[in-house]
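Lab channel / #folding
Pinned by the channel admin:
"Please post every new chain as: sequence first, then the structure tokens as a reply. Keep commentary short and put observations after the output so the thread stays searchable."

First post following the new format, from NK:
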Amino acid sequence: MELRDSSAYKPTVENVVEREGNKTARRDFRSQVTVVSACLLVGISFGMSLGHSAVLLPRLQAANSSLYVDEDTTSWIISLNAGAGPLGCLIGGTMIDHWGRRKICFLANIGLFLGGLLVCLAQRVPMLMSGKTIEGFFRSMVATSLTVLADELADPKFRGFTVCIVITFGSIGVMAITSLGTLWPWRRAAWVTTTVFLLSVLPLVLVSESPSWLARKGRLEEAARSLKWLWGPGREMEAEEDLAFLISRNNSTHRQSRSHQGFLKSCREFFTSRILKPFFILHFFNTIQIFCGFGIFTFYAVDILLKIREAGDKENSMDENFSAVIMSFVRIVGNATATLLMIRVGRRPLALISGVGITMSALTLGVVLILQSIQNISFGSDWLTLTLTVLFIWFHSFGFNQLTILMIGETQAAHVRGFACGYIYTINDIVLGGTLKFYHSLLRNLQIHGLFLMFGISCLICTIFVYFFLPETQGRTLEQIEDYFRQPNVMWVTRKKSTQSERTCEQSTTEVTTALDK
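Reply from TO:
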């Protein structure tokens, strides 16, 4: 079948929309297992890098440390580690659109290894800072490239499961480095982390490049091979239909880029409502969560748990290092629960349950800490504060933490997906880096109870925003999600109530037919 023959593949577009809308055909199970398996070690690597600072810096501040750093220096190390992320996100987002998702993910993991190697060999603080900065830069590049790659390779029904299980293994990486950092000297733990960075490069050779990216670049033979690999043996017709569908959706965009006004049209295209609506909805959803506390807790877990312990019954309280290991395990349980539910339950229910749970646990913990510190009320042990902290972490891991990563790649339009994801991650890392730099000042002014009250209020605002604006994407193809944002509504609650599959089939077929007839 000649794919460029419009009379031949107009029906194929209808077949693809109908097939995906009715959820009657699924990509090959073996290819999906390969995609998940290849991403798991990258997820562990990312998690170990993310959680390393929380256990590294308390060890460096110890009196017997081989490389002593003071409180101000630790804030610089953490802020540089997080603050290098914006550049990594922005450059990574641009690079994956030009050179491919898998290739940049591969190179980013090598860079992560080089940064970890500098940390392991550091004998002076500047070398340690350089290593953590490089590590933060490439960690953000890994996050950007891996998110988009997993979104575009995964079957629509299991896309949430695929991305979320990678996030779950990221949490396993956090728990692994938290445990190792608690039990071992910091340099030995750093060597283990760096070894994992290197090993995470190997599984990426098993997966294919994104067929969506290959088709947009005109590399149709490679896109066809990628789709055949995703669909498996004996499913050549489905692969051809998908390729025809990708070609047809990119047809008008390619035609505009070849015209003399292509650049100006491309710029104007970015500022259309169908691009800006998902961009700003996910932008706000991600940025407000920095003040919901999960990122701050990840980098300063041991210190925050120590402050909670000091506010209560210190003698009968659990050691903060052991508590940090417990919180890492709770994070895994929350991620795993959401991963299993993601196959059947929509994004919105998970987000709303998560938001309400975080809000209640954070505000209650803040009130309890006020009673303990101001009125000197003792609850006899740390069971209440520990339980509330566990709930705070579990509800974060159950919804918000998963969905911010998953839905960035899902909702952005295909031709700006890399740039949009990179930009959102960039701004998030800038805000997070600044917040981490001023964490100690924030803690001195608000105290530990005020910090959790701030987390709770921020999460309440985020939950209200989710209810009104966040769209449901579970079970929909990336093309169907993109078509939703072509509708005139901004808020999800004011959307049209017509059947999604009927609307998508009619709209997609009309657009493609128009593009082919030009």
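NK: The first helix runs from residue 6 to 22.
TO: also worth noting, Residues 29-207+273-469 form a domain with the Growth Hormone; Chain: A; fold (CATH 1.20.1250.20).
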